[in-house]
Amino acid sequence: MKWCFLVTYNPFMEFLGKIAHQVVKGGDSCILVYNDKISEYSQKQYFPKEAKSFSKVDWCMENYDKKQDNFEDLAWRDFFADFNRFRLFGMGFSRASESISQKYQFLNFVLIREKPDVVIYEPPSG
């Protein structure tokens, strides 16, 4: 099996790292998807070195297409989950849409290319 861990800056990542080590120890493959550089540099210590890594920041710098605004079947309700965070940082509609587009393009690339069997992320909070 191929396991995909979405890694963020969160204390829960140490626990997910232990699961990832067990995954590799059991003979399965593991990929790590980093949302930002802070997460990449502060959380990678918890995950196995054998895991294949993808950085959203690096990918977007080389591949992000500002002209691609087709989110296919992504509904606006999916957008609203992050919208309050965007407002907190003073993002208007254009910047918020661009941020969603970056996430969408990056995750679409990783999931289509790697075809993981399992995707693990932090539990819901708040």
What can you tell me about this protein's structure?
This protein is an alpha/beta fold. 50% of the residues lie in helices and 15% in strands. It has helices at 13-25, 37-43, 56-63, 76-88, 93-114; strands at residues 2-7, 29-34, 52-55, 118-120. A 4-stranded parallel sheet has the order 3-2-1-4. Strand 1, helix 1 and strand 2 (29-34) form a beta-alpha-beta unit. It is globular.
Q: What's this model, at a glance?
A:
The chain is of the alpha/beta class and 126 residues long. The chain has 5 helices and 4 strands, in the order βαβαβαααβ.
Fill in the keyword field for this structure.
126 residues; alpha/beta; four-stranded parallel beta sheet; 5 helices; 4 strands; 50% helix
Which blocks of ≥5 consecutive residues have pLDDT under 50?
none
Strand content: 15-25%
Number of strands: 4
> Globular, elongated, flat, extended or rod-shaped: what is the shape?
globular
- Helical fraction: 40-55%
Order of helices and strands: EHEHEHHHE
Radius of gyration based on Cα positions: 15 Å
Can you give the mean pLDDT? 85
Largest sheet: 4 strands, parallel
Secondary-structure-derived class = alpha/beta
Termini gap: 32 Å
Number of helices: 5
Strand order of the largest sheet: 3-2-1-4
